[in-house]
Amino acid sequence: MALNREVLILRMVLFMALIGLSVSSFISTEVFQTERSGRSLAEMHCPVDFKHKNYKILTSKCKAPKYYGRLCCPAFKEFACPFSDVLNAVDKNDCASIMFDYIDFYGKYPPGLFFTKCVEGSFGLRCPDA
């Protein structure tokens, strides 16, 4: 009986670990709600230096006047997915706000563009497996 309990506990732990891994492969919808925070970039904190990232991944593919989802969303994923862990930690840092401020600065995109074009369900935006 004790062995069955240990096996059950092990299975539960593995299941929870798999759920955690699968959730981390998304960019949460909460990230998109941080756009346009209104605070100065100097007041914000993020361990990633978004100021010096290469935004050409986005700006070369996602262009006005027509922002096609088939072009903008893969470019957004290519840029943002490597940072999904820090972006999803919206309660611990300002990375999402900072990233969107710089995306808007370099791309001059309309507010909410990536949310309206790219969110893929209730979890947010699915990132490719690393």
UniProtKB/TrEMBL annotation:
GPI-anchored protein LLG1-like domain mapped to chain residues: 48-125
Species per Swiss-Prot/TrEMBL record: Rhynchospora pubera
Protein name: GPI-anchored protein LORELEI
Protein origin, superkingdom: Eukaryota
Transmembrane regions listed in the UniProt entry: 7-27
PANTHER family: GPI-ANCHORED PROTEIN LLG1, GPI-ANCHORED PROTEIN LLG1-RELATED-RELATED
Keyword Transmembrane helix: yes
Keywords on record: Membrane, Transmembrane, Transmembrane helix
